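Figure 6 in text form: structure in, sequence out.
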């Protein structure tokens, strides 16, 4: 048993080292999405049921296209509303592949929404589930084929997980705070593993919607991601909504020097995303984001693409009294 744990530990160390070398500024962060503002379940379980309608969404992100071992992330989420919008239920699956390391996560979410004013609500939510961390030994190229420290085949480890959050909103404003990976770290440590991926992460977000004319509205927002052992990310977003069907905008992502002990090259990375969202039909939303890297990879032109598809089980009413724009 001790030999197996040693192999798993060494393999994960190698995988994390590969990950650090490839993923740069996101090495200590959970997978990121450029279109998270259209599916808050990615960053806050209290978002469940906010739309007031049953909603399905899938997102695929290919980061640093054509770069060997580049991260690829796929998610599928279901967001359901009950009790006239007072309760929300969610389910999500995520798989994240980077080099030899792969993560699969299964989570279920519940949120309860309290009316705090004529047009304001406070949601309290939590999500629980399990995460699988795996290393595929076939990705390695050892000098000695009989090297005992190189895993043969796929090795994996499982841990429970718990996230929680609060989400406040009106028809024109929202703000949320959440914490991810509240449990499960001890399970990994008992197996002799130490994964920065499963460190405690915090998210703070805020945004609003401002009418510019009868057919044009502007939505500024920001998101802060923080981990005690990695760089703190700040996203500044600006989206414009045309005729209540087409979103066009951009997002600027940078690192904030909160953890002073980090290397300089992990505190000065940034990227620019261009985002397009389209309600092709009343119940079908299509999204695309293109990320331009402004870091050590910028000269390689290995930029990122992100596609998303959202489907309202009951057709979304464009002219509904209280449209869900967040």
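Output sequence:
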């Amino acid at each position: 048993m001790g030999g197996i744990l040693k192999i798993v530990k060494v393999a994960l160390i190698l995988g994390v080292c590969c990950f650090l070398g490839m993923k740069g500024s996101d090495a200590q962060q959970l997978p990121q999405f450029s279109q998270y503002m259209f599916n808050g379940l990615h960053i806050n379980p209290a978002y469940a049921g906010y739309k007031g309608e049953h909603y399905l969404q899938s997102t695929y992100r290919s980061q640093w296209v054509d770069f060997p071992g580049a991260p690829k992330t796929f998610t599928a989420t279901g967001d359901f509303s009950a009790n006239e919008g007072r309760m929300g239920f969610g389910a999500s699956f995520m798989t994240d592949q980077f080099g030899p390391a792969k993560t699969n996560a299964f989570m279920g979410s519940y949120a309860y929404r309290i009316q705090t004013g004529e047009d304001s609500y406070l949601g309290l939510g939590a999500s629980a589930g399990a995460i699988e961390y795996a290393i595929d030994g076939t990705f390695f190229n050892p000098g000695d084929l009989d090297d005992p420290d190189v895993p043969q085949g796929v090795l994996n480890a499982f841990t429970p997980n718990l996230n929680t959050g609060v989400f406040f909103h009106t028809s024109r404003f929202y703000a949320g705070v959440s914490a991810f990976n509240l449990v499960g770290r001890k399970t990994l440590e008992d197996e002799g593993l130490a994964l920065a991926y499963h460190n405690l992460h915090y998210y703070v977000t805020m945004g609003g919607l401002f009418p510019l004319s009868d057919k044009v509205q502007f939505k500024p927002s920001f998101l802060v991601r923080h981990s005690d052992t990695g760089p703190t990310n700040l996203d500044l977003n600006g989206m414009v909504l045309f005729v209540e069907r087409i979103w066009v905008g951009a997002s600027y992502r940078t690192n904030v020097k909160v953890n002073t002990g980090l290397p300089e090259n992990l505190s000065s990375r940034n990227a620019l995303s261009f985002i397009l969202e389209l309600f092709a039909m009343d119940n079908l939303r299509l999204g695309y984001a293109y990320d331009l890297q402004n870091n050590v990879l910028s000269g390689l032109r290995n930029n990122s693409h992100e596609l998303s598809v959202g489907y309202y089980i009951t057709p979304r009413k464009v002219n509904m009294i209280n449209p869900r724009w967040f």
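Caption detail: The two ends are 49 Å apart (CA to CA).
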